Structures are given as C-alpha cells and as structure tokens.
Amino acid sequence: MSTLKDQAIQYFEMFSNKDLTGLSEIFADDVNLRDWERSASGKVGMLAANKDIFDAVNTIVVTPISLYEENSTVVAEIEVLVNNEIKLLVVDVIKFENNKISSVVAYKG
Question: In CATH, what class is 4-108?
Fold first, then answer.
C-alpha cells in the first residue's frame, strides 16, 4: 500500500500532466480547495478550478521539494513552474479521507 506521501506525489504528477481524469479518481466527492486566488467545493468544483488553471497556461510543472506526513495530512513544499518561466514556491496542505484527497489548501510564499 502506498503512503500518503506517494499519493501526494501522484497528485502533483497528474496536476503537471493536466490529467483531469486521473484527478477525478483521487478526489473525494466532497473535496475542498482554497488557495490565494480561488476556492472550490465538491469534486465538480475542484475539477472546474483545475481546468481553469490548465486552460490559462501552456505548461505547469509541480516539483516537490519536501513532504511531511502526519496522520491523514501531507504538508508539501513545492515549486510550481508556469510556462517554463514563472517560478512559484508554494506550500500545500493536503488532507486525505479513505485514500482520497478531501482538502487542498495552498499557500504562496
């Protein structure tokens, strides 16, 4: 069985590949998103928010720098490279329930 860290890495890979089908499979039905620009509730809302991001960029690559796992939560320091030129440093707090992502809260900084 994979660790939650492994599942978080899989999430980042799917996000980098703009894989909405894969993301749909790892999100809980009642997943929530909050970042510095948007919030979304439910799988449909989360997928729509991700699609908006994907449509707005040519490429987006998420590279984990460090991951910390505690109980049902992974805290990930990540680098997000947008269109091969804009680098963002972000901390994602990802909560899991029943091996599905139930919440993503992202902090830019």
Answer: alpha beta
Q: How far apart are CA 19 and CA 51, in angstroms?
A: 9
The answer to whether the beta carbons of residues 66 and 76 sit under 8 Å apart is yes
Specify the pLDDT at position 24. Answer: 97
pLDDT digits (tens, 9 = 90+) for 76-91: 999 999 999 999 999 9
Domain coordinates in residue numbering, the chain: 4-108
Residue 56: its pLDDT value, please? 96
User: Is residue 71 left, alpha or beta, with left meaning phi > 0 and alpha meaning psi from -120 to 50?
Assistant: left
